Amino acid sequence: MSTPASDGGAGDGPPLDVRVDVPRTRDAEFTAFVRDSSTYLHRTAYLLCGDRHRAEELVQSTFERVYRTWAKVKPGTARAYARRILVNLRIDAWRHAHRESFPGDDNIPIPPTSDHAGHVVLRDELVRGLARLPLNQRRVVVLRHLLDLPEADVARELGIAVGTVKAANSRGLARLRDLLTAHAEVVEPVVVDEQVVLDRSRAALRRRRTGQAVGAACLALLVVLGVLTRGPVPLPGIGPVVLPGGELIARLLDDGRTDWFGPGPDPAGYTRLACPDDLPGPTPARAPDSGLDVGPLVDPVVVDTPDARPLTCYDADIEVVTPGVLDDQGLPVTAYGEPLPEPRGLAGTGHIWTFDSRELLDDDDTTDEASIRADGWAGDGSGSSSTTLTWYQDRRASPTGLAVTGEHVVWSDYAAAGTSPRANFVSTASLAGGGITSSTEPLVTSQENVWLIATTLDHALWTAGDTADDTRLYAETLDDEGTPTELAAGVTALAADEDEAMAAILTPGSGETSTTSIRLFDDLGGVDPTGTLLMEFEHDSSSVVTQIAVSDDVIAWTVSLGADGPGDLYVVDRVGDSDSIVRLPDGVADDLRAAGGVLSWTSTEPGVQDSEPASYLYRATPSASGYDGPDLARFPGGSVTASVAGARTAWLETAGAGQWLVRAALAPTLERE
């Protein structure tokens, strides 16, 4: 602002031109930001949700959030800050809404703007196409192309790996090409009243502050009453009574079930994945020591488990965290009282199969309904389905193990005490049409003990024998239309994927060495049940192959060096020349799983009672690691069990009475920039 000024009335000199700069107020700066950014944010909101009115509500909510912390926003970062808030608000809405309808008869309310995204000619077919994309693909495509963000920025904004961004972007664009037409339409402008936005943001801030003050006062009163009345309070004529305030404060402060809290997308307590700015480097690999038995591997490299790096957001994109606690029987349950699924039941479909352990421990065998369940990926019980377990001579059998491939599960169980003859069973079920289909009769009834179990998409496989050292391997079709076929004897480890099974077969030697052969069974319905010999190797007689895993990309097995000794994990790259060995100096591997070129397992220290386990994710091939060799990462938290299947991973973390089942999408490759 300029005003003329005199020299005090002398009139001798020329008039002075004095310029006074009046700084803008906080509200004026915010109003200017609303005017400059409303179109950009509205475009983003509309493309993410596909509805004009919901986009306006989303933008208004974003402005209200920004207004709360406007004084803390750094100059030049306001638009990016608001965009991140908008995307997070939309993600929260996706987590709470299972279905959405997208109107298609309105023009996109976006005028041309000066930024790069505004030059993209959009039409209703684009919104229709985005609406038909999976949620992860939709938000990646919008941020990557319509907002022109680099892949690294998209990964940081969404909290996922860069490799996940690239994969979702590629699939999303391919899908959009099939959905979009070639021409664009003129669009209607959107009108934003900056003063109205400011007034609404002020009102929202006042309501928030009022609610915070009232909430703080109530919480303070609750804490005071809870502390004063915590524990039994003697009441005349009644006796000791725990008042409601004391009961609530005890729940807040004591360990125990919190069944009044439901699972959320990000509950407190579990160990979150670190998300460094740069992609972690590969785990150090070295050449084998001169005394290390490399077995049938060709020029392997060696990785040591102490060199494992922490699992990060580049490895997995956490989707659902289900909190749980130990119930009165010491069993892990969710906040809804349902069994907390074990990761070992993870299927590539996203379901986790588990047994209803509470009912299994019920003493009333005539009334309980123990079952095997398929828990949906949401983790809140809404996607669960179940079927009852085997009954034999009016008593329920107890399950001992399960194997999952695709949408099929096979489990073994044994008859209750007091039944005669005492029998063991192999049963199967599958998911179809949103529910479980299963036979009322077991697939197999055996008078021998059932030890190992696996399944392809067509056949169940198991080992049976009086002792674990004297077993035979059998196969049976899942439709129970044939008779069990004996395949081999002396099997120490068994695994299967969709169309093939593998077994480690031990042949004891006469001296200090024994021989283990690994056989492939890929024609279980054919005329030759003996399988194909893949490899055969000699080893110390005190060693034994205890675990085996198979996928289209790798064959892996663990060798335990004696009862209390360390172990080694051997990996054969089936599609390349990148064999490797993982040294397990602190213990042997349990529950070895394979999915593509990725492996997972849990290690425990041998000979140590109640030792704390540690779980690992191993990208065993260059195609899975993105590097020239393998890469080893350790799952977060304490006392975990973990598993991989398809493009999924899940792990169970425990800390005292608290438990968390974490489910995540697995980045197929650690792709580098």
TrEMBL record:
Keyword Chaperone on entry: no
Top-level taxonomic group: Bacteria
Family: Belongs to the sigma-70 factor family. ECF subfamily.
CDD domains documented for this protein: Sigma70_r4 (cd06171)
Sequence ranges assigned to domain RNA polymerase sigma-70 region in this UniProt record: 38-99
SUPFAM superfamilies, per database record: Sigma2 domain of RNA polymerase sigma factors (SSF88946), Sigma3 and sigma4 domains of RNA polymerase sigma factors (SSF88659)
Disordered, as annotated region: 1-20
Gene3D superfamilies xrefs: 1.10.1740.10, Winged helix-like DNA-binding domain superfamily/Winged helix DNA-binding domain
GO MF assignments: DNA binding; sigma factor activity
Segments crossing the lipid bilayer: none
Domain annotation RNA polymerase sigma factor 70 region 4 type: ranges: 124-176
One record GO biological process: DNA-templated transcription initiation
Name the UniProt record assigns to this protein: RNA polymerase sigma-70 factor (Sigma-E family)
Family matches, as NCBIfam families: SigE-fam_strep (TIGR02983), sigma70-ECF (TIGR02937)
Record keywords: DNA-binding, Sigma factor, Transcription, Transcription regulation
